[in-house]
Amino acid sequence: MIIAKTVSPVLKIGLRFLGIWPDVSYSAVHLYSFILSMLIVQYFQYVYIMEHLKISELSNLIDGLAVTFDYSLTLFKIFGLWMHRNVFHKILADMDNDWLVSANIAEHSYMMTIKANISHFISNVIFTFNTIVGVFYFLGDYAIRSIIQSADYNNTLRQLPIRVQFPFDTQQSPLFEILVATLFIHVMLHVSIISILNGLILTLVAHISGQIDIMCHEFKNISETVLYRESTSITLETQIKRHKRIISFSENIEKLFSFIALMQVIWNTLVICCIGFIIIISIHNDTGVFVLVKSVLAYVVIMADSFVMCFAGEHLSLKSKLIANAIYETSWYNMPVRQSKVIIFIIMRSQRRLVITAGKMMDMSFETFTSIMKASASYVSVLNAMY
Question: Structure pTM?
């Protein structure tokens, strides 16, 4: 399929695993199995939180809340993607059609290929980075606990990779080792899903960015045909159709990620606050260096998660402004009156920015990302002053 040029193999495998990719056999079974495993882990995570809902265990409580909230966010994202899977399938069909249209012109195909290569590279980088951080977060937790146990010879309690509370004894071998391996695999799957969703939105924005670049390129070269009324009319008609496809594609991206973006803004803010609390406590803890490194790694991943969504929205908004600029820079004043009037309408429509919103309430942009950063920094500074 031509779609393979845009969507990287890593994303395609992950979306097939989730059952979101079209024409996947037993897609519902794939998705429901993963969601069921997430819900089971979530249940025992919240049981742990309820069991440790005490001031004396505030550090463990907040540490558990950070991972638990992150799991909940991933569940919301999967739910939002599954509910709009028909929109996603429409997006894939539009991408396939864009490649078919661009294949007839070498310059267009070249520009689309560049965007596809960039999206492949970014998807692989995100997946690799999140996987490495996930492994270090897991190993760092065990390093911290081994140091604590070496300092306290009376403490022989073995801890699981994440904060969960099972209704049975987990300390006996080989049950403990099986649970550790199972939870580690589950955590890595969770990290992979985050990488897939982040890579997906950047891939879609890169694709529409390529279409906008093609449209701008065509309008910059339109001056070569302004003396020929018929060819100019054909060129304008083609660009109007392309513009309509760009607008439709952008609206579908908005439908697909609006709910996901809203949940991300809310839950990531909660997770950042929890991690900030852990960072402040770790400064005054015996294992402060190890806890601090672990917390900083988690903080970087969460902020990167928020940045990806905000960057995608900001990039899409900026690229949409280029259309009006490119049209205005054409030799529209040399065109016949009929064509110049059409140009005016295209410019007017281009004034409406293409955006990704969080639940139709706020635009995902660098301004939103800065607001999240300011809120987390203010929270940490207040905690540091009160500690």
Answer: 0.86
> Which residues, at least 6 apart from 378, have a Cβ–Cβ distance to it below 8 Å?
none
> Nearest-CA neighbor of 6 among 199, 195, 197, 191?
199
Six-digit token string for 11: 């994303």
Question: In this structure, how many other beta carbons lie within 10 angstroms of the beta carbon of residue 281?
Answer: 19
Query: Cβ atoms within 10 A of the Cβ of 16, count?
Result: 16
Q: Which H/E stretch holds residue 384?
A: helix 366-386
Cα 178 to Cα 41, 144, 187, 190, 302: the distances in Å are: 15, 21, 14, 18, 28
DSSP bridge pairs for 357: 363
Report pLDDT for 147. Answer: 55
Rounded to whole angstroms, the Cα distance separating 96 from 44 reads 43
What's the pLDDT at 153? 47
Give residue 211's identity as a one-letter amino acid code.
Answer: Q
CA 14/CA 21 separation, integer angstroms: 9
Sign of the four-CA dihedral 114, 120, 123, 127: negative
Q: Which is it for the CA torsion 358, 363, 364, 367, positive or negative?
A: negative
Neighbouring C-alpha atoms within 13 Å toward the C-beta of 255: 16
Whether the predicted pLDDT of 175 surpasses 50:
yes
Counting DSSP H helices and E strands in the chain, the numbers are 10, 0
76: its two tokens: 């919301």
Q: Look at residue 284 and give its three-state secondary structure.
A: coil
Q: Which regions of 244-373 does DSSP assign to beta strands (E)?
A: none
**Closest by CA position to 355, among listed 254, 261, 265, 255:** 254
Residue with the bigger pLDDT between 332 and 39: it is 39
